[in-house]
Amino acid sequence: MNAAIHAEWTKFHSVRSTWWSVATAALLMIGYAGLAGLTVRLGGEQLSAQDAVIGGTFYLGQFALVTLATLVITSEYATGAIRSTLQWVPRRGGVLLAKAAVLAPVSFALGALCAAIGAGIAIPLISGAGVPTSFGGALQTTLATGGYFALLSLFCLGVGTALRSTAGSITVVTLLLLMVPILIGGLGLHDVVHFFPGMAGTNAMTSGTSPIVGSPAPYPPWLGLPICAVWSAAALHLGHTLLRRRDA
């Protein structure tokens, strides 16, 4: 497994799409946090530091991460490199495990680091406008963002393995993160919406009231990440099952 993980790390950091995705995620997350803090400072809107950071980390940065995590597996199917990968690592579960071992820590570090920098920018701006801030809330957001990004990357890895298509996988993940919850929320099923991965991640970063749905979650904030973990585990199980049954 050490050799497989090293090979996956080499493939991961040696392509330009990885760095473009990381740079885009960082720019969106940090930039939005600073812009939200500046809006509060100049406009006097009562937006908490926690929500200012979340607006950048969750809603914008996740799309760059979805692309990055999906390409880890679907790019190999697109180029045919998956045949070489499976030849050198015959145990297909080992291939998925090696990719996850590289992707999850990088995603956690990306989310936590960018959230921390965003908080460092937004909190002084908001505090200067007389809006109360909470270090504990900012720390919760930072750690939860890292955890959510790690779990979201594994979810995308599972979906990408199952579908073997970049466009199809990004479409399915985006639908589950945004469009389906919006549709269900429009039907008045707000409690159901909170159990989708995107909303559960948001609830983990806040005090339990989603700034997107506007209604309190039917569970405590600490339960948000375990709900995301269930989605990730289900996607990885599906991807692993299909990877074992199908030809490359």
TrEMBL record:
Top-level division of the source organism's lineage: Bacteria
Keywords: Membrane, Transmembrane, Transmembrane helix
Transmembrane region(s): 19-38, 58-79, 100-126, 146-163, 170-189, 223-243
One family name in Pfam for this protein: ABC2_membrane_4
This protein's name: ABC-2 type transport system permease protein
Source organism of this protein record: Amycolatopsis magusensis
